[in-house]
Amino acid sequence: MAALSPSEFHTSPVDAIALETRAADLGTRSIKKASKVQGLQLAISMMDLTTLEGMDTPGKVRQLCRKAIRPLPQRDDVPSCAAVCVYPDLVATAVQACRGTAVQVASVATGFPAGRTDRPTKLREVELAVAAGATEIDMVIDRGAFLAGDHRFVYDEIVAVKQACGAAHLKVILETGELKTYDNIRRACHIALLGGADFLKTSTGKVTPASTLPVVLLMLEMVRDWYLETGHMVGVKAAGGIRTGKDALKYLVLVAETCGDRWLHPQWFRFGASALLTDVCMQIEKERTGRYQRATDFSAD
Q1: Cα(50)–Cα(275) distance, rounded to whole angstroms?
Q2: Most exposed: 78, 85, 207, 296, by fewest CB within 10 Å?
Q3: Catalytic (active-site) positions
Q4: What is the model's pTM?
Q5: % of the chain surpassing 70 pLDDT
């Protein structure tokens, strides 16, 4: 790959008022009845169920995989989730539990969530996760390097991780809450696209704010424009703070209105979901029965 000059990391300023106004307008769109159910089912098919805690055990991961495979066991019309996402040492457990299904196994890597370790260690972590069977890698960028203005370092690291992924897809986590400004987020998106990202991802879920409608709208505009420029499709993953089916539907409207129907597919849009699935299942059952069930009627793990 040819070396890039610093000027190639430059991006134009973001019109914050226009971005936020557009996001707010799209967020008011209403989806009812059959279309709502279809949207909720689509949202489930786009979810990455995640467990990224120090107390994670093989048993907890296997339970998460069962939930991803059959989110509502009594409903054959409810699809499987897109993936489960775990730490590298639990990838083999998840691969075994998901074998024979369409559920992918993703692993966080590169010193998640802070990214504060040396590059050889980061690359070794990626290689181990892929060797254990991970088909998707969620890497964190070095926000310290980015905020210090060392965009070359960030770019070079993404390129190296992409190479270490082999056939696995690379999701680049920008941790937008730490980047602070839309201008920074746009530049980070641009660097990730130049570096070969298969997905742009908002957040680790460990930092507030995480995913917001204006930020995801900005990221969708970046991948749309990248496609128009290069012909190469890149996905977007909204992760962190998305807890209700109503919120999920707002994001799907953003996708449809910004990138078009081609992006309304798990291959091109994902939700990082920990608490989201339960509410979406509650909403689907409410549409079927006319009444809400208790959250405790659904598996929490």
Answers
A1: 9
A2: 296
A3: 138, 201, 237
A4: 0.93
A5: 94
5 within some domain:
no
Three-state DSSP at 144 gives: helix
Query: Is 6 contained in some domain?
Result: no
Q: Which two tokens stand for residue 222?
A: 């970046």
What six digits make up the tokens of 217? Answer: 């709208």
Is 3 inside any structural domain?
Answer: no
Q: Structural domain of residue 176, as residue ranges?
A: 11-297
Q: Is residue 228 part of a domain?
A: yes
CB 114 within 8 A of CB 85: no
**C-beta of residue 83 within 8 angstroms of C-beta of residue 136:** yes
SS3 34: helix
For tokens 């457990």, the residue is 93
Neighbours of 163 (CB within 10 A): 13
Tokens encoding 5: 């000059």
Residue type, 212: T
Q: Read off the pLDDT band of 246 (50, 70, 90).
A: very high
DSSP class of 114? T
130: domain CATH number is 3.20.20.70
| Total structural domains within the chain | 1
Closest CA to 95 of 123, 55, 72, 64: 64
Strands 269-273, 47-50: pairing kind: parallel
Other C-beta atoms within 10 Å of 96: how many? 14
